[in-house]
Amino acid sequence: MIEASAADPEGALVGVDVGGTFTDAVVLHRGRLATAKVPTTPSDQSEGVVAAVAAALERAGLRAGDVARFSHGMTVGTNALLEGRGARTSLVATEGFGDVLELRRQTRAHLYRLDAHHPPPLIPAERVHEVRERCGPDGVVTPLDEASLERAVEAVRADGAEAVAVGLLFSFAHPEHERRVAEALRAALPGVHVSASCEVLPEIREYERISTTAVDAYLTPVLRAYLARLAERAADAGLPAPAIMQSSGGVLPIASAAGHAAWTVLSGPAGGVIGAARLAARAGSATALTFDMGGTSCDVALVRGGEPARTAETTIAGHPLHLPMLDVATVSAGGGSIAWADSGGALRVGPRSAGARPGPAAYGLGGQEPTVTDANVVLGRISPDAPLGGRIRLRPEAARAAVARLADALGLGLEACAEGILAVAVHEMVRALRRVSVERAADPREATLIAFGGAGPLHACQVADELGVTRVEAPPAAGVLAALGLVVAGERRDYVQTVLAPVREGAGLGGMLAPLRERAGRELPGARLVAAADCRYAGQSHSLTVPWDPEAPEAALAEAFHDAHRERYGDAAPGRAVEAVSLRLAAERAGAEPELPAARPREVVRGPAAIPMEGATCWVAEGWTARVDSLGSIALEREG
């Protein structure tokens, strides 16, 4: 448990982040920071995780027994969803509503392309079963028919299901029937994981609720198996059980994470956002854009006042997921992204990646196709003298050969092709950054770009030029900032309950929050509680999440909603009635506040120049200057 492992204030704090190419580890002990990078082990990520911890501990001169807390962020769930490698899953739904995943919202996959299609549901129609029951807004309409429940249980058994999702109508308000169905399934099929929507997401909107529950059921057996292997490897190595990063930016015990995989689908990117947000807060940046570029993808997010932006909805591989999470946008543009020519002769980059194996051609591990990393090697922006991850020595001749083959196909020179590869990759990353800034009413020109990940500082100046950003921060541990974010992250639990109540004096919204407060008090005693409400104008379909003080008059919440509506849509209607759709509560317990190593002053560097960093390279482009600031970050500024 986290509480036990954090008990020794003198013990070492460990964070491990798994990327598509490298697994990063950070060990922080008495103000000393040690880092390590090892190649990711795709067949079993736990192998690389424990190897990374061992390497970092060795560099720190410590043993496994010195570790007080071990936090971990991973991409197991996301990868399984993207690659379709989840568990064989069944669905139990209300009679007459079994097609909810197939019908979706009846919106097109693409507005103007009739040949574009949504991905097939995670649960095919032949594994969807119905029970006779019906609840309405005011309670039970048709009692649960036990005979239909027995038939559904036997049908799930016949499916050979490894997991089952249970999603009944109005279970967010009246969960009794759904709990009975889940109870019957667990009793009859003890080896099958059961995800009930009233436990995963007790919130209005049946499609989003059941889709999220289906994702949870589909991924949980896969994540549970991985975490069991990780816990066993950690115990064998003498390490404490790891705490797992959630999509919401807080860690929770491994046993809780193993029960609900949907909570961790953005576990990997979350660590980096938390680390960058902490840096932005220390630097006093009012607005910051986090730019985490690794070997396979690039993750970006908006930070305001030191707090990362949050959302309650996202879509991964075409499947809606409605859970509290950091507002992260991801694009397939990483150092290992493969460059290619399409049928029209245009240069493209990604989404395919060379990954950890065989990796970019420059790694000398068998890769033959040109990647973003190879383009940087060709342009001389990555030195071949320092081995990557302490193990991989770059081979510039292999990178040149790979890029040359593509250059010949496109009719370009070698360096022109390399520059084109970077320009295409940067364009994709800039689009993602505009999505989390301009579309969130934030002007990127007023923000600081915090560049990290193994490839972030290498491309930061070019990205900043495209956005009009004039200041970039590359943290001292840029190559492993996601792992450092896991070290400083605190514990967090998120709760939601749909209420559909008017926002007016005497509505008693504060009292409606009491059940969530009680749960938070049981599950995370002593935590700081932060409330919010999903509000809308009466008659609207969708809502906005607004921060809320439950002790303040309801009029303050209505006014906050008007302001939020005006900021998002450019208009508000103060005279219209406001409705609270759902109430949200976050319970937070602060993480570590480590004393990081002091910075060593350096002279100002003018571009073009490459500055080696721990686990990364910072490229100072022409027209930019770089210096080390008081926090140890490389601060880059646009001249003129």
Q: Can you give a write-up of this model?
A:
33% of the residues lie in helices and 27% in strands. Among the domains are: 2-80 and 224-239, ATPase, nucleotide binding domain (Nucleotidyltransferase, domain 5, 2-Layer Sandwich); 82-223, Rossmann fold (3-Layer(aba) Sandwich), CATH 3.40.50; 337-423, no CATH class; 491-589, Dna Ligase, domain 1. The protein is α+β, with helices and mostly antiparallel strands and 640 residues long. Helix 4 (100-103) links the parallel strand 5 (89-94) and strand 6 (128-131).
List the helices and strands and how they pair.
Layout: H1 2-5, E1 12-18, E2 22-29, E3 32-39, H2 45-60, E4 67-73, H3 76-83, E5 89-94, H4 100-103, E6 128-131, E7 134-136, E8 139-142, H5 146-159, E9 163-167, H6 176-188, E10 193-196, H7 197-200, H8 206-236, E11 243-245, E12 251-253, H9 254-259, H10 267-283, E13 287-293, E14 298-304, E15 307-308, E16 310-311, E17 314-316, E18 319-321, E19 325-326, E20 328-331, E21 337-341, E22 347-353, H11 372-378, H12 396-410, H13 414-437, E23 448-452, H14 456-467, E24 471-474, H15 481-488, E25 491-502, H16 509-512, H17 514-523, E26 528-537, E27 544-548, H18 554-569, E28 578-589, E29 605-606, E30 609-613, E31 616-620, E32 624-628, E33 634-638
Parallel strand pairs: 1-4, 4-11, 5-6, 5-9, 9-10, 13-23, 23-24
Antiparallel strand pairs: 1-2, 2-3, 7-8, 11-12, 13-14, 14-15, 14-20, 16-19, 17-18, 21-22, 24-33, 25-28, 26-27, 26-28, 29-32, 30-31, 32-33
Helix pairs in contact: 2-8, 3-8, 10-15, 11-12, 11-13, 12-13, 13-14
